[in-house]
């Protein structure tokens, strides 16, 4: 069923992105690196994440879906520290370590969340992104897909408020 455990419709059906640093990796993804930042552009939900490669986190950053990401290179590993992710407790940080495979076709991101004191939250996980030549990031409109996700293929308007 499309309704979650509490009976509410999931964010995806409501056209809201999921909170987290790897949002959008289940479809085509475009990564562009400049000297100042890495731009992560996902087809799904048109999510755009910016990982700044210099500077410091903004004091008092207001939490949002993707947080504020600052990255630096540690040899061949990109280390990304993200603060202000809505799905994390106040003061928590998400630390990602990005490593490219020897053949250059897979990007493995090891993701660890830590609380404000630096204690790990949960178990680290790895998310892989695979390079697929010829894939393109296309137009994607959430409204085009709502009907197939709702119970019985019902219209979105029929489900809101129930």
Would you mind describing this structure in some detail?
The protein has helices at 146-149, 156-159, and strands at 29-33, 37-42, 48-52, 68-74, 77-83, 93-100, 106-114, 120-130. The longest helix is centred in the C-terminal third of the chain and has 4 residues, at 146-149. The protein is globular, with a radius of gyration of 17 Å. It is mainly beta. Helix content is 5%, strand content 36%. It starts with 28 loop residues before the first strand and ends with a helix. The chain contains two helices and eight strands, in the order ββββββββαα. It has an eight-stranded mixed β-sheet, with no helix packed on it. A hairpin with a 5-residue loop joins strand 2 (37-42) and strand 3.
Outline the secondary-structure elements.
Elements (H helix, E strand, L loop, with lengths): L28 E5 L3 E6 L5 E5 L15 E7 L2 E7 L9 E8 L5 E9 L5 E11 L15 H4 L6 H4 L3
Q: Compute the separation of the termini in Å.
A: 14 Å
Shape: globular
What would you report as the Rg, rounded to the nearest angstrom? Answer: 17 Å
List the uncertain runs.
Answer: none
Which strand order do you get reading across the main beta sheet? Answer: 1-2-3-4-5-6-7-8
| Average predicted local confidence, pLDDT | 83
Structural class: mainly beta
As a percent range, the share of strand residues is 35-45%
**Helix coverage percent:** under 10%
Q: Provide a count of the helices.
A: 2
- Give the biggest beta sheet: 8 strands, mixed
Explain briefly what this protein structure is.
The chain is mainly beta.
